[in-house]
Input
Amino acid sequence: MKEIVIIGHKAATAPFSLNDLPGAAGRMDILCRCVSSALFLSHDLRRDVRVHIILKGPPDEPKAIRFDGSSIRYLSPDERSSASLIKKALEKNVRNFWMESTPGVSIRKGDFGNILHEINKKVIYLCEGGEDIRGKRLAGTFDDTVFVLGDHLGLTGDEEKTIEEYEHEIVSIGPLSLHADHCIVLLLNELDRKEYLNRNVQSGEDDYS
Ligand SMILES: C[S@@+](CC[C@H](N)C(=O)[O-])C[C@H]1O[C@@H](n2cnc3c(N)ncnc32)[C@H](O)[C@@H]1O
Output
């Protein structure tokens, strides 16, 4: 599983209107686009990706919602579709452990630190000032890695300190500051290429490095 965590600093923690995702729902639109970018291929899903969104907005923060590509149902690529699954999850009486709200979507009380602790893998923090991903020798399967991104506010100093508690690397996707969902598309494309290369390196087929 490739694990991705995105932090929504203003994202609503109670059911919200699907008609105002950027405003009243606290930039929920960003998280919805991230979910879609992480899970959708053309006419298929990335079944080896799990996305965690951390909701840190009022009124009942923090909560975490997990989308599991291996079992997700009722999700289509548009923002409103992921928003409606998030809203359904927020209708549950949330506790300190994962509860499934719809197939492949689960929710729990918990903040960024709780989720990193639970995943307990090496952290790759995507950040504009990081080391270029193209120069990096990333491992072959990425099962031992969790990728972390911020929303429009980036990451706070405290969140960066939480990352420092783990083995971690700070990696840049390119020279410009990009939208988080675009970073996910580019990141997964890099990983696709590395996996493709690893699979084909012995047979001498196409080189996507
Ligand atoms: C719109 S950016 C955040 C901008 C915010 N103003 C800041 O200063 O962090 C959203 C997130 O996308 C990721 N990101 C954006 N551009 C990136 C880049 N070139 N390389 C790696 N990650 C990037 C980071 O995780 C960032 O927190």
In short: The beta strands are 2-8, 40-41, 44-45, 49-55, 63-68, 99-102, 105-109, 122-132, 145-149, 168-172. The domain at 2-200 is CATH 3.40.1280.10 (Alpha/beta knot). The CA atoms of residues 75 and 81 lie 6 Å apart. The mean pLDDT is 94.
